[in-house]
Specification:
- With 423 residues, the chain is α+β, with helices and mostly antiparallel strands.
- The protein folds into three domains: 251 residues, Alpha-Beta Plaits; 115 residues, OB fold (Dihydrolipoamide Acetyltransferase, E2P); 40 residues, no CATH class.
- It is 15% helix and 34% strand.
- The chain contains eight helices and 25 strands.
- Strands 1, 2, 3, 4, 5, 6, 7, 8, 9, 12 and 13 form an eleven-stranded mixed beta sheet that branches.
- A hairpin with a 5-residue loop joins strand 15 and strand 16.
- The longest helix is centred in the middle third of the chain and has 10 residues.
- It is elongated and about 100 Å long.
Length: 423
């Protein structure tokens, strides 16, 4: 059976592309083969919708031992490891048209391919700015769209994802009549999951009192639990106290993989790239308007500005401890030419910061003052002179290692340090 790839069916104000999996399964008599896929794309692209997510799924007549991966209207959703071919029994594009926002910036797209396309389509879509016309020229499969063709990029990327080091998310959905308004998801439930289950991540930010499993925007999603073991997520779902919801399903995802990041030189980092930049701190750090913390980095004569915005909260206080000469590797997105927004940093080595101040006068026991450029120091009281000042080495309140933004500021693709660094 072919693979379906779907993208750009939400807007900044409503819907969620992942919800279409529920409506497709409701409408079809075919079985779900493997897990549905949730694929996040380049987070720096200005054309993106909220989470910049695309989905893919394969339908067929399932064979082999099935696994329960969710529920729809009280009935188990089962996933099968194998399938036999059977004719598609639904019009997927009509479902997309029905549920997509009627928004001028939304370009819903459907890609139907016999098999996965070249994985390079995925790597470009998660790391670069992709011209949709080039995808139309090269991708293999049937393509349908509404309101433009930009959605082909994500739809094809979802089909082409090579599934390196995947994570999983169980997403619970509200009935359509309940999509508007505020919704109840107990903070204590989220705290319990964060504290108790070490194979989950980004559930609660204790310092900033932020419940990260509950969306803050208008969406069909009531909550989502992220983890690395799909077989345990349904167990964890039982610990969430919330209002009633009609369905839930587990997605295989590229979240928390750092797939968007690639090591580049400063010269090779272009607008909208996500990059890992190695260099030496050469200016700052400095505080700016709106709580922005910035510092300069330099490598082989090339310079770039690194910034941490106010939503990164206490992470900025860590960056404020950097000093000129410190060697760092900065992980982040290029959203402005010559500037990288920091989402994670490795302090490779620390410089020795010295302060030279006037020495004490041996006669008067008071501190001397400068006698002028290159003229040493002079005591104002007795006139004694000295060519050497007192050298004070700053005691650094920072150690080499990795540091990251708090959960409240974490991008979907950014890998939490608790999961380890991808080599």
């Amino acid at each position: 059976m072919p693979i379906l790839g779907i993208d750009d069916t939400d807007s900044r104000n409503e819907m969620c592309t992942t919800y279409l999996t529920i409506e497709i399964l409701r409408s079809s008599n075919l079985d779900l083969i493997g897990y549905p896929k949730l694929v996040r794309l380049n987070p720096n692209i200005p054309l993106k919708t909220r989470g910049n997510a695309a989905i893919s799924l394969r339908l067929g007549r399932g064979e082999g031992e099935s696994t329960v991966i969710g529920k729809i209207d009280g009935e188990n959703v089962r996933s099968y490891p194998r399938y036999r071919r059977e004719k598609m029994d639904i019009d997927v594009m009509s479902i997309i048209e029905r549920f997509s926002p009627k928004d001028e910036d939304t370009n819903p797209a459907l890609m139907i391919a016999e098999d996965s396309n070249n994985e390079n389509f995925y790597w470009e879509a998660v790391r670069e700015f992709v011209d949709y016309r080039k995808v139309l020229e090269k991708a293999k499969g049937d393509f349908s769209s509404m309101n433009g063709q930009i959605g082909i990029v994500g739809a094809n990327a979802a089909i082409s994802w090579p599934r390196n080091n995947p994570t999983y998310e169980l997403i619970a959905y509200l009935d359509r009549k309940d999509w508007t308004g505020k919704h109840f998801v107990d903070d204590e439930s989220s705290m319990f999951i964060e504290r108790t289950f070490k194979d989950t991540f980004d559930s609660f930010d204790f310092k900033n009192k932020y419940n990260a499993i509950r969306p803050t925007t208008k969406t069909p999603v009531l909550f989502g639990i992220r983890g690395i073991d799909p077989y345990r997520l349904i167990e964890y779902e039982g610990h969430v106290k919330s209002e009633r919801y009609s369905s839930s399903i587990i997605y295989e995802t590229n979240q928390a993989t750092d797939d968007h990041l690639v090591e580049r030189s400063i010269a090779d980092s272009m607008l909208y790239n996500s990059s890992i930049i190695r260099g030496f701190v050469d200016s700052g750090p400095e505080w700016g308007r709106g709580g922005i913390l910035s510092f300069g980095i330099e490598m082989k004569g090339e310079k770039m500005k690194a910034v941490a915005m106010e939503p990164t909260k206490e992470f900025r206080l860590l960056l404020a401890k950097l000093r000129k000469g410190d060697e760092v590797r900065v992980y982040g997105g290029i959203t402005k030419v010559g500037t990288i927004n920091v989402e994670k940093i490795e302090v490779v080595s620390l410089s020795e910061v010295k302060e030279i101040r006037p020495p004490l006068c041996p006669n008067c026991k008071t501190r001397m003052e400068s006698a002028g450029r290159n003229s040493g120091f002079r005591c104002r009281k007795c006139g004694a002179r000295s060519n050497k000042g007192d050298v004070k080495v700053e005691r650094r309140d920072l150690t080499p290692g990795f540091y990251e933004v708090p959960v409240i500021a974490r991008r979907h693709l950014a890998r939490p340090l608790k999961l380890g660094i991808v080599k």
